[in-house]
Design brief:
Structural class of chain A: mainly alpha
CATH architecture of one domain in chain A: Orthogonal Bundle
Oligomer: heterodimer
Strand content of chain A: under 5%
Distance between the termini of chain B: 57 Å
CATH topology of one domain in chain B: Four Helix Bundle (Hemerythrin (Met), subunit A)
Shape of chain A: extended
CATH class of one domain in chain B: Mainly Alpha
Radius of gyration of chain B: 25 Å
Largest sheet of chain B: none
Helix content of chain A: 40-55%
């Protein structure tokens, strides 16, 4: 039903927005990788966008749409500046780790010390493989270094 | 809802169960460095339970097709979002986030925001996410870094996020109980006066009954007022009422562009200076 004011649609869309926002909040609180933290922040912005558009549809008003356009603009600016900072941080520490910058913390906060992490991931990735076929090519000594996984 | 009889399908019970399952699922699924396959399976199962609870608390939309489309796109968005924050590999997180963006664009399309749905795909997935992936490819070391396999306070964060979700869902569910409070704001662009939510239920004392009475039986099947000539009217609104804000956003984009370039060039110079002066206090403070 395509009514002007569909309260069930509004509530469902607001719930989706709330779930996206909460997941983004959990992500930005827990993850240590700077890039993943920014992805989580963008996810919070997505949740807000969904909520704004839902309200906009509910009221038959353009305000939410216009605000989401500005959210997109500010998110693009934020991503540009933030990625520059992330690259600078990486070039100084060699890590994308937020805890690499914990010397900036408050004096009263204790230092984060990494717990014992197994050197190999306990859950191995299963990548798709192709059935070997044909003749095995001769090994190439000039073959560049390959990553086992990303 | 009687307080004496325990009804497992009451919305409050469902909501509480969904919140607790969300917290437990996120706690089990977030990287801790010690998780095994069974823990992940249990976390995924609890996540599905939480999703089922939230779907069960959702409202019926009326049409089966609309319900199915909304359910599918929102499931894609939410599941991919959850996979984004629990992925160990940041590259996989970025790709899951792209799928989540596709779901969000679908939700926006269902909500009638045609331009924004496409703009989300183009701007986010096309530009911002690709930029993130470039940075990841530049900066990510081979293999899974140790900091990708641990989390900061996963239990407290999962509980905090689930509690926030529960509070938000509670207030969203109460929207129907107060239609006069949420719908008293007159719309500027809608040509017809706003109809109350449930016809005949929302004419309160402080409203003038002469204006509310014709609106109460107005658009039961009216189409979305934002639907026809959508992009043209959105552009008119954007460059009409919000022209100054558009100019300000353009200036902001320019400032961000120049600022990014400036930070790169100055940062490289400062980095070279730090590398040459080994005994500076700044360099000593930065070493962790």
């Amino acid at each position: 039903m395509n009514t002007v004011q569909s309260l069930p649609l509004l509530q469902n869309a607001l719930t989706v927005g709330a779930i996206l926002f909460s997941l983004g909040l959990v992500g930005i609180l827990t993850r240590r990788n700077l890039i993943v933290m920014f992805l989580a922040a963008e996810m919070m912005l997505q949740g807000i966008s969904v909520s704004l558009v839902a309200w906009s549809r509910f009221h038959g008003d353009w305000g939410g749409h216009v605000l989401v356009i500005f959210v997109l603009t500010v998110a693009a600016c934020e991503a540009a500046v933030a990625l520059v900072f992330v690259l600078q941080a990486f070039s100084r520490t060699g890590r994308l780790d937020a805890a690499a910058w914990q010397s900036l913390r408050e004096a009263t906060i204790t230092r984060t010390v990494d717990q014992e992490v197994p050197s190999i991931d306990t859950v191995p990735y299963r990548f798709p493989t192709l059935t070997p076929a044909g003749v095995l090519p001769p090994p190439d000594d000039n073959e560049p270094f390959e990553r086992r996984h990303v | 809802m009687s307080p004496l009889a325990f009804d497992p399908f009451a919305s409050g019970t469902l909501l509480a169960g969904g919140v607790m399952a969300t917290a437990a699922s996120l706690w089990l699924l977030l990287p801790s460095g010690r998780e095994t396959g069974a823990v992940r399976w249990l976390g995924g199962l609890l996540g599905l339970v939480a999703l089922a609870a939230f779907i069960a608390t959702g409202r019926r939309l009326g049409g089966l097709g609309e319900e199915a489309v909304f359910l599918i796109v929102s499931l894609v968005a939410v599941l991919s979002a959850a996979a984004t924050i629990v992925s160990r590999s940041p590259v996989y997180a970025a790709i899951w986030f792209a799928l989540s963006l596709a779901g969000v664009a679908g939700v926006l399309l269902v909500l009638g925001a045609q331009f924004l749905g496409v703009a989300t795909i183009v701007v986010y997935a096309g530009a911002i996410l690709v930029m993130f992936l470039f940075v990841l490819m530049l900066a990510q070391p081979a293999g899974l870094a140790p900091y990708d396999r641990v989390s900061n306070e996963p239990f407290l964060s999962a509980v905090a996020g689930a509690v926030l979700l529960g509070v938000l869902s509670l207030s969203i569910g109460r929207l129907s109980a107060s239609p006069a409070a949420c719908c008293g704001v007159p719309s500027r662009t809608a040509a017809t006066p706003i109809a109350p939510l449930q016809p005949g239920a929302a004419v309160s004392e402080n409203r003038v009954p002469e204006t509310a009475a014709p609106a109460s039986r107005a658009p039961e099947t009216a189409v979305d007022p934002l639907a026809d000539n959508h992009v043209a009217r959105l552009g008119g609104e954007l460059f009409g009422r919000h022209l100054v804000a558009v100019e300000a956003a353009g200036v902001l984009l320019l400032v961000a562009l120049i600022g990014a370039i400036a930070v790169v060039s100055r940062g490289e110079a400062a980095h070279a200076g730090v590398a040459t002066s080994t005994a500076g206090p700044a360099a000593g403070g930065r070493a962790v």
